[in-house]
Amino acid sequence: MRPFRSIALLVAAVPALAFAQGAAPAQPPAAPGPDATAPASPSPAEPPERQRTERAAPAVPQSSPEAAPARPSAPATPDEDDTGSTPSSQSTEAQAPAATAPADAPVLDSGEAPRTTDAQQQRLVNGAPLYNPNVNVHIVQKKRFADEGKHELVLYPAVVQVNGKFTNHAGTALHYVYHLQENFALQVGGQYNWYSDESDFNLELIDKVREQAQAASSLLLQWGAHAGVEVTPLYGKFAFFNNSLAQFSVVLSGGAGIGKTRHLIRPEVANEVEGQTYQVPARFGDTGNKFLGEVGGGFRVQFGESYAIRLEVRDLIYTARVDKVDGCNLADFEALEAARAANQPFDGLNLSGSCKVAKFDGVDPKTKKNYREDIILGRDLVAEPSSDVLNNVSFYAGFSVLF
Amino acid sequence: MKARTLRVFAALSLSLTALGAAAQEDGVLDTAVVRNRLYKPAGHPELSLSVGLPVQTHLTAHYFFDVGLAYNLFDTFALEARAGYAASRHTGLARSISESFLDREDKRVTDELEDMWRMGLHGVVGARWAPIYGKISLVADIPVHFQTYLWAGGGLTNLKRQSVIQCTQVVDRAAGVCDNRTDVTDRGSATENYWVKESRVAPVVSAALGFRFFIKEQHGIRLELRDWIFKDSYRVNLLRDDWEAGKATGEPAGSPGLTHLVQFDLGYTFSF
Questions:
Q1: Under an 8 A CB cutoff, do B138 and A17 touch?
Q2: What mean pLDDT value characterizes chain B?
C-alpha cells in the first residue's frame, strides 16, 4: 500500500513539475513591468533557427486548477506581443474586479480554465471578452498610466534650431496640454528665443564672397505663441539594458499662432572715438509680427504617474516678407538718408506713421555710436523687398508634470 | 501517516525547486523586464543596405549608398563594417556664388570657403550598441519590436573639392562662365570647367543614432541619423591675380576645423 501511494504521488507530481517549467517564465523574480504572461523560452535542444524567434505556446497547467496562481478573472495576455493598449481597455479595466490581479498572472488554457457565463465577464471590449481568461486574442496590454482628463505642463529648457543655414536660434518653451481623451489633447504654448542671430555660415559668405542671404531668408524669430492639438497614435514600451521599463508614446502636434520677428541690421562692431575703442553690440531691427504655423512630432517617455520626458522636433513655419524695418519702409529710409547726407534734422520729414525715426537718430551715450550710420543698412534690407516661407525646425528637450 | 505526507510534500517541493533551478541555468527563465525578446540577434551575422539623404545642405549635398556587414556578438552589441559611395554635388547656392564672384573684382584677396570637400568612396568599421529594446503598437493590434542603438566607428574616405572662388581661366566674367560651354546660357553644354580642383584620402569618423524595426525573423528596417566627420582643409589669403593666372596661391588655413555631413539613413537589414 505504501509503494502504491508513493507512485501515485510521483505520478501526480509530473504535471506539477511540468507546470513549474511552463509557468516559471511567466513570473520572473522582481519583474516590475506591466507585462503579462510571457511564453516559455525555447529549450537549448531546439535548433538555432527556432531558438532565435521562438514564440512558444502559453503555459498550460495540466494539473488541477488550484495549482495555477492566477485568479480566474485576471486579464490574460498570452501572446508575448503584449504591447501598448487601447484607451478603452484602460478605462474599462479600472472598473473590473480583475484590475487588482497581478499583471504577471499566468495564462489559463481554454481547455482547463473555468468557463464563465457571467454577463460582466462576457462583456466585449474591442470585440472580445477582455475579462474572460480564456480569451487569448488580446495582444495589447493595459496602459499603465491614463492620460484622459489630465493636465500636463511641459517645460522645454532647451530648444535648439537644427536646420539653421542662415540663422541660429536657441530658446526656452513652455506648453500646457489638456488631454481631452486618451489619444487627443489640446495644447497652448509659448517660446522665447533668448538667442537668435545670423549663422556663422552667413557671416562667412559676407566676409569671403560679399554675398548674404536675402532679408526674408534670414529673418529671426524672437518669440512665438500658438495653440493647437496633439495626438498620440502610437504607444509602446522599452527596456534599457533589460533592467528598467519605460512607457512611451509617439506624439504628433499641430497648431497656429503668432510670432515676433526681427532682422540683423548691423553685427557687433568696434567703434573708435577720440582714440578710445567701444564695442558696439549687434543691432536688430523689428520686422513685425508674423503668422505662425506649427507641426511636430516626438516621444513622450513617462516615469510614474506624474512625470514625463519629452523629446520632440517641431517646425515653426512663418511667412517672411521684409518691406519694413522698425516700421520704416523704403521711402522713409530714402528720406532719412537724404537728410543724413545733408546733415539735417529729421523733425520735418514726411515719414510714414509707423516709422520709429528715433531709432535712427542720435548717439548712443555708452558706445558713442551714431545711429544715423545705420540708416543705409536698414535701407539695404528693404531696397529689394523679399519674401520667403521659413521653416524653423528645432529640437525640443523637456520634461512635464501631469496632474 | 502525517510524517509520510510531509516527506512526500517535501520531496515534491524539492523537485520543484530543483527543476526551477535547472530551468534558470538553461536560460528558460528570463529576468528581463520586457520579457522574452521576440528577436535575439546575438550570434547572427547580418547584411544591410542603406540610402542616406542630406538633412541639411549648405554648399554641397550628398546621397549615400552603403552596404554593411555586421556580426552580433550579443543581443545589444555588434560590430559592423560599412562601405559605399556618396554621390555628391554643389548646391544651387554654391553655383550662384561661383557665378557672381567671378565679377566681384573689388574683392582681390579672400579665403576659400569652408566645408567644400565632397565624399566619394568610403569604408568604416564600427560598433553598434543597442541598449534599448522595445515594442510599439501600430494601429492597435500590430506590435512592432525595435531596438534603439548608437553607432560609432571610423575608416577612410576619398574626398574631392572643387573651388567656387578660384577660376583659372575666366571665359565670361559678367555671365559668370568658367567652363567651355558652347552656349553662354546653357551650362549643360560644357564638357570641362576651369575651377581649381583637389582630391585626397582622409580619415573619417562616423556616429549614428538609429532605430531598427524587426520584421518577422530575418528582416529589419533601419532609420538612422548619421554624422560623417572629417577634417576640413582649405587655403586662405588667396590673390585674385594669381589664381586667375593659373598660379597656386595662398596658404593652408591654420585651424580649418571639422566638416560634418549629417544624413538621414533609411536601410534594410537581412539577418542570417
A1: no
A2: 84
| Mean predicted lDDT score pLDDT of chain A | 72
What does CATH list as the number for B46-271? Answer: 2.40.160.20
pLDDT of A352? 86
Nearest to A239 among B34, B113, B140 (CB): B34
Write out chain A residues lying below 8 Å of B217, CB-based: 49, 52-53
A238–B132 C-beta distance less than 8 A: yes
Domains of chain A: which residue ranges? 32-143, 151-323+385-402
- For an interface test with B, which of A17, A202, A208, A249 has the most B Cβ atoms less than 10 Å from its Cβ? A208
Is A203 near chain B, with CB under 8 Å?
Answer: no
The Cα–Cα gap between B241 and B238 comes to: 9
Task: Identify the band that residue B53 occupies on the pLDDT scale cut at 50, 70 and 90.
Answer: very high
Strand B238-239 to B109-110 pairing: antiparallel
On whether any CB of chain A is under 8 Å from the CB of B104, the answer is: yes
User: B149: which 3 cell numbers?
Assistant: 542603438
User: Residue B48: pLDDT band by 50, 70, 90 thresholds?
Assistant: very high
**pLDDT of B206 above 60:** yes
Q: Using the structure block, give the residue that is written with the C-alpha cell 549648405.
A: B58
Q: pLDDT, tens digit, for every residue of A8-46?
A: 444 444 444 333 333 333 333 333 333 333 333 334 334
Q: Which among A165, A210, A245 has CB closest to B56?
A: A165
Residue B55 forms contact with A (CB below 8 Å): yes
Residues 129-148 on B with a CB inside 8 Å of A are 131-138, 140-141, 143-144, 146, 148
Q: Does the distance separating the beta carbons of B217 and A16 come in below 8 Å? A: no
**Domain-wise residue ranges, chain B:** 46-271
Question: B28 — contact with chain A (CB < 8 Å)?
Answer: yes
Backbone angles phi, psi at A258, to 5 degrees: -140, 150
* DSSP codes, B178-239: -B--SSTT-GGG-S-B-EEEEEEEEEEEEEEEEEEEEETTTEEEEEEEEEEEEE---EESEE
- pLDDT band (50, 70, 90) for residue B87: very high
Q: How far apart are CA A33 and CA A105, in angstroms?
A: 12
Which residue ranges of chain A lie beneath pLDDT 70?
1-144, 241-243
Task: Tell me the per-residue pLDDT of A271-327, one tens digit each, with 9 for 90 and over.
Answer: 888 888 888 888 898 998 999 999 999 999 988 788 999 999 999 999 888 888 899
Just give the CATH number of A151-323+385-402: 2.40.160.20
User: Which of A28, A238, A244 comes nearest B35 by C-beta?
Assistant: A28
Q: Among all residues of chain A, which has the CA nearest to that of B77?
A: A241
DSSP annotation string for A54-105: --PPPP---S-GGGS-S-TTS----SS------HHHHHHHTTSGGGGS-TTP
